[in-house]
């Protein structure tokens, strides 16, 4: 007798702010309020789509949801967000959540006319350099690669519109691991073109959208 085939193991990798802000943009364009996420439903929606795309005889097995976010140190709402990520989201079953501190940009903005750097505000003297998210993309790529090399999944669902993930998608697929792009509307078409398949996660929103409070 032949042994039954094991299920296809699925891991989901989400760029939090890219995901959340894309959802908010589409909701506001439709005349609704910002999007309230039910994180337990996100994994269900992604696994359902993987099952529909691959149609494995053995079905799919959910192995984990990896969420990557960032915060600005000392900023009230951001510190609240960091606390939520670390004390609630990261403690949900099957979820690994990371919140990386943003760093200040080294270069200030430039005048579009003379191209001189505007280091400080002429009115209040405030430093004009903004904050930038560094480390999130690196963490996503590192985890996708290391977990793949350790045989921790067969299919990765990547939820981001960032085309910087094209190289990791191509590398994993060259080694027999499928990368499926969970896109939000039309965002991230470049990345989707380099993945094994894609699906519109926004169309699945009834599975993971909470009613506004």
DSSP helical segment count: 6
Termini Cα gap: 55 Å
Average pLDDT figure:
86
CATH superfamily descriptor = 5'-nuclease
Strand fraction equals 15-25%
Q: Round the Cα radius of gyration to an integer and report it.
A: 20 Å
Q: How do the strands line up in the largest sheet?
A: 3-2-1-6-7-8
Element-by-element helix/strand order? EHHEHEEEHEHEHE
Biggest sheet, in brief? 6 strands, parallel
| Oligomeric description of these chains | single chain
Output the CATH topology: Rossmann fold
Can you characterise this structure?
It is a single chain. Strand 2 (60-71), helix 3 (76-87) and strand 3 (95-101) form a beta-alpha-beta unit. The protein contains six helices and eight strands, in the order βααβαβββαβαβαβ. It has helices at 16-29, 39-54, 76-87, 136-149, 166-174, 189-193; strands at 8-15, 60-71, 95-101, 103-104, 131-132, 155-159, 178-183, 197-200. A six-stranded parallel β-sheet has the order 3-2-1-6-7-8. Strands 4-5 form a two-stranded antiparallel ribbon. It has a single domain, classed as Rossmann fold, CATH 3.40.50. The protein is globular and about 70 Å long.
